[in-house]
Design a protein that fits this description.
Layout: H1 3-14, E1 17-18, H2 19-30, H3 38-50, E2 54-59, E3 67-72, H4 74-89, H5 98-104, H6 110-132, H7 141-173
Antiparallel strand pairs: 1-3, 2-3
Helix pairs in contact: 1-4, 6-7
Length: 174
């Protein structure tokens, strides 16, 4: 199971929800942290149901169309706790696509490499600004911690790119 299964189990641990509520919460609160399409959430919920970790009942209110309401099972709660511990212990060493460009950067004239790095820096700043504007979460402080994690990584990337650009400037002055 992956982090998306963990997320869905965690949401259902807090309360039973219908699929629309789950997708709305993810879209409005977590879309920048955990990219997940609506169809993916439903597929994972079905898989969790087949594994006995989630139960589903069909609910219908008035003239509204029927909707599936998902709840975590006792086995789902046990699995959730284990997945959560495993996830917190995990060290996910990333392999960054842009490292290939960095490896081959000396094939470009320094001016072109610097222009590309300035653009990268601009994009990083846009992301930093976006995360800094995310409102504080009263209900789930873990959301704030996850956002802070992303923000810290972005700032570290920004600092690294600035150092790289400084090294390139020094290299051209030699």
């Amino acid at each position: 199971m992956d982090s998306r299964s963990l997320l869905l189990l965690g949401m259902l641990k807090a309360q039973s929800r219908h699929g629309y509520q789950i997708n709305e919460f993810i879209e409005h609160n977590l879309r920048d942290l955990i990219p997940m399409k609506k169809s993916t959430a439903y597929t994972i919920l079905d898989r969790l149901g087949e594994a006995g970790l989630v139960s589903m009942v069909v609910d219908q209110e008035g003239n509204r169309p029927p909707r599936k309401v998902y709840s975590i099972t006792e086995e789902g709660e046990r699995q959730f706790r284990q997945l959560l511990k495993d996830n917190l212990e995990m060290l996910d060493l990333k392999h960054f696509e842009e490292d290939v460009g960095i490896l081959l950067m000396d094939e470009l004239p320094i001016a072109e490499a610097m222009a590309a790095l300035r653009e990268k820096l601009r994009r990083i700043e846009l992301e930093v600004n976006k995360y800094e504007k995310v409102p504080h979460h009263e209900v789930r402080p873990g959301v704030d911690m996850a956002i802070d994690h992303h923000l810290s990584l972005l700032k570290a990337e920004r600092d690294w790119v600035l150092r790289l650009m400084g090294n390139l400037r020094t290299k051209t002055q030699v």
